[in-house]
Specification:
By secondary structure, the protein is of the alpha+beta class. Among the domains are: 14-152, PAS domain (Beta-Lactamase, 2-Layer Sandwich), CATH 3.30.450; 299-433, Histidine kinase-like ATPase, C-terminal domain (Heat Shock Protein 90), CATH 3.30.565.10. 53% of the residues lie in helices and 16% in strands. It is rod-shaped. The two termini are 29 Å apart.
């Protein structure tokens, strides 16, 4: 039985894994976008609040020192301010820096006070200003570098994004593992169905561990039961048909043979044709019974086609063997194919049939070409399409048993049938893999 190729087919497991990974990445990007928005607003707001509180503390201290005239000394004595947080005391009228922390710029970062936090013109500092009570000519400016704020925002966003990505990867791996485990019963059911033989009860697939697969398994079991019953019925019919048909046909042939001896010369041609028709009916019956005999697998042997042709008699039809290499095949089935293909050639006015038999690279080949009427190119293509679909119905173009029987037999051997274009006549090529190496000639 031919194996289905799965290389180009999508996998459920990989499709689910890919979807989970895509969802995780989209979720991580969404989290990153949300984090960026939150960081841009909430972290800035927190940092502004921290800047305001720091400025208020510095203002409380420096206001006292400023009244006492000691603000210059505090700048020198306590010179270890945070690098990204500086302060300046600015003369309102002139815009000059009266006092500053040791790392503050020498130029005023803001010429006028502003009650709300704001950025400097160069965008390098975020500043907060306070006026001194009792000294309207000076104001305090506390600034935080934008570099520090960007670093804080970046670190918050980066750590959150890394955490989100790690969680996405972990979730994807976990979900992929769960999907693999959940698809395990489906794989087990597939293997059980692949090894299921309706004629062997011990191969019956067991009910799976998942509720969704139980109806499928039950349907397969029911189908196998129906197939087994069908095969048993066909085998019983074959046995009865073999007994019921062989005896009458043999009796008809015997009676016709006696009639030929006793009949006058004028009736002998008709009796001869009748006997030939009865012989052909016997061959067709034997072919059909062979196809449906007990045993579903071909009984392969190493045979020569010339030996199978010896008992055949096709009158004036000449059979020429181009080569006669031994092949690995069921002799009964191959004989039935030869019976019907040669009979087809004779009925289509063929006078000569050329047979070529060989085995190469583990493959058996049989080519049969005649010089009969043949068929048109359109009809030949119709026959090819019907055989490819195994459409043996009345509208397929297949007439008679020859090609149908050849197709069934070669498929039973795991091979295929081809109809090459030849002129004149008709050609059939059968090829099938060799199960057993043929004996040497």
């Amino acid at each position: 039985m031919p194996r289905f190729k799965t290389a180009g087919l999508p996998s459920i497991r990989w499709r689910i894994t890919r979807t989970l990974l895509l969802i995780s990445l989209l979720w991580a990007l969404l989290v990153a976008g949300v984090v960026r928005y939150v960081v841009h607003h909430e972290v800035d707001e927190l940092m502004d609040q921290g800047l305001r509180e720091s400025a208020e503390v510095l203002h409380s201290v420096l206001a006292v020192l400023h009244r006492q005239g000691q603000d210059q000394q505090i700048a020198q004595t306590h010179g270890e301010y945070e690098e990204h947080l500086v302060w300046q005391i600015i003369q309102l009228q002139t815009g000059e820096v009266v006092s500053q922390s040791h790392k503050a710029p020498v130029q005023a970062l803001l010429p006028t006070p502003d009650p709300q936090p704001r950025n400097t013109a160069d965008g390098l500092w975020r500043v907060m200003t306070f006026s001194f009570q009792g000294d309207p000519q000076h104001f305090l400016l506390v600034a935080q570098s934008e570099e520090e704020r960007v670093e804080a925002r970046t670190e918050a966003a980066t750590y959150t994004l890394i955490g989100a990505l790690l969680m996405s990867v972990l979730a994807t791996a976990l979900l992929s593992l769960l999907v693999r485990r959940e698809l395990g019963p489906l794989s087990s059911l597939s293997r059980a169905v692949a090894g299921y033989d309706p004629l062997r009860p011990e191969t019956l697939p067991q009910l799976p561990e998942r509720a969704e697969l139980v109806p499928m398994a039950q349907a397969i079991r029911d189908l196998g039961g129906r197939l087994a019953q069908r095969i048993a019925s066909e085998r019983a019919f074959t046995a009865h048909a073999a007994h019921a048909l062989r005896t009458p046909l043999a009796g008809i042939d015997a009676q016709l043979a006696i009639a030929l001896k006793e009949a006058p010369e004028s009736l002998r041609p008709r009796l001869t044709r009748s006997r030939a028709a009865a012989a052909r009916l016997n061959r067709v019956m034997q072919a059909l019974l062979t196809m449906f005999r007990s045993g579903s697998e071909p009984q392969r042997q190493t045979v020569r086609v010339s030996e199978l042709l010896t008992p055949l008699a096709f009158g004036e039809l000449r059979i020429e063997m181009a080569s006669d290499a031994p092949v690995d095949a069921d002799p009964d089935l191959l004989s039935a194919v030869l019976f019907n293909l040669l009979d087809n050639a004779q009925r289509h006015q063929a006078r000569t049939v050329w047979l070529t038999v060989g085995n190469e690279a583990g493959s058996n080949r049989l080519r049969l070409q005649d010089d009969g009427q043949g068929c048109a190119a359109s009809q030949l293509q119709q026959l090819r399409d019907a055989l490819a679909r195994q459409d043996y119905g009345s509208g397929s173009g297949l007439k008679g048993l020859g090609l149908i029987l050849a197709d069934l037999v070669v498929r039973a051997h795991g091979g295929q049938i081809q109809l090459p274009s030849v002129a004149p006549g008709f050609c059939v090529e059968l090829s099938w893999p060799a199960a057993v190496a043929p004996d040497s000639a």
